[in-house]
Amino acid sequence: MNDRLEGSAEVEPSWVTVDLAIFTVRSDRLMVLLIDRGREPYLGRAALPGGYVRKGETLRAGALRELREEAGIDGSRLHLEQLGAYGDPPRDPRGRVVTVAYLALGPDLPVPVGGTDAERAYWTPVSELLGATDHLAFDHADILADAVEEVRRKLEYTAIATAFCGEFFALSELRTIYEVVWGQPLDPSNFRRKVLSTKGFVRPTGEQRLPPTGRPAALYARGDAWLLSPPLLRGGGPNA
Known about the structure:
Elements: E1 14-26, E2 29-37, E3 46-47, E4 50-52, H1 59-71, E5 79-86, E6 96-105, E7 118-125, H2 140-157, H3 171-182, H4 188-197, E8 202-209, E9 217-222
Parallel strand pairs: 1-6
Antiparallel strand pairs: 1-2, 1-4, 2-3, 2-7, 5-6, 8-9
């Protein structure tokens, strides 16, 4: 550290916040959790849930607390990972605020309940937000766009798609996750072949689910592999 900068005009006080891009799939649509801010700045504007990191609090603990306080959701049961840091000087009108964004995924998450400085919390289709740069407060449109692309990318190379599913799932349900997140139809036979030939991706449970109509569906659970080899790559249209 350059001690000569301490206390100089080149250094200003700064604060650290956490923001969360929380995704689930509901009614075959990719949804993100938003809040309406109950305080300035951006009073009443939609935003990703988040807030200041408290003294002595880790970044992850702050993210879990904000999720619990602002939306009433237990984040310890979600897939939660850091997305990145955002610190452009004009991103927050209160001063120099650097935020560490988190990515969270869960299966068919419940209706959120707003609290603390969130006027209300609710699920919104991602498709209605991408490209609408003036809809969300702060730089949350940029964070959301980065988070969506990160999820899409991770579906190719990791088993993260299973985080959108329950403990047991049919391959048709897993395929729906890929179709919803990627925004493209997939050939059922090709998808089934690729998933079952990818070592450690899923494991059969020996159980079946009886649908209202049609044939029973075999149930699977997440396997012991995280990285997929070979990967399931995007592109190729309905026969991918």
